[in-house]
């Protein structure tokens, strides 16, 4: 499985940004969860949100609930993260990852930098 995240950039506090993750190489018959993680400068990488590829079931960390929306386009093999009402604390490198039925986050994209600054 190959993942590529893109769409990061500079956004002002209170602004919005949508980042994308394209995926390829899924194993037929396996079930995948696609997740977004972020790593702020000097901090550990943390979970942000995830979506089941087949059902569309979503999860969010409490700090982004109501502000971020994860979605997918199966035809384009792409997962999106729409980020609204952004805060300084949202500044981080955002990574997408894939979790097959084994239950581990086995596959990672290269990350895209999101900076919230005035």
Question: Which secondary structure elements does this structure contain, and how are they paired or packed?
Answer:
Elements: E1 2-6, E2 10-11, E3 17-24, E4 33-39, E5 45-52, E6 58-60, E7 68-73, E8 78-83, E9 92-99, E10 107-108, E11 112-116
Parallel strand pairs: 2-11
Antiparallel strand pairs: 1-3, 3-8, 4-5, 4-9, 5-6, 7-8, 9-10, 9-11
Structure description:
The chain is an all-beta fold. It has strands spanning 2-6, 10-11, 17-24, 33-39, 45-52, 58-60, 68-73, 78-83, 92-99, 107-108, 112-116. The strands form two sheets. Strands 2, 4, 5, 6, 9, 10 and 11 form a seven-stranded mixed beta sheet that branches. A four-stranded antiparallel beta sheet has the order 1-3-8-7, with no helix packed on it. It is globular and about 45 Å long.
């Amino acid at each position: 499985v190959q993942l590529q995240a893109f769409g990061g950039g500079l956004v002002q506090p209170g602004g919005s940004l949508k980042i994308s993750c394209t995926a390829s190489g899924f194993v037929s018959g396996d079930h995948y969860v696609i997740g977004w993680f972020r790593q702020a400068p000097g901090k550990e990488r943390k979970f942000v949100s995830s979506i089941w590829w087949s059902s569309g079931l979503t999860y969010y960390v409490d700090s982004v609930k109501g502000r971020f929306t994860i979605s997918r386009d199966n035809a384009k093999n792409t997962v999106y993260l729409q980020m609204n009402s952004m805060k300084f604390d949202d500044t981080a490198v955002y990574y997408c990852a894939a979790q097959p039925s084994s239950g581990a986050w086995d596959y990672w994209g290269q990350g895209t930098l999101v900076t919230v600054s005035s």
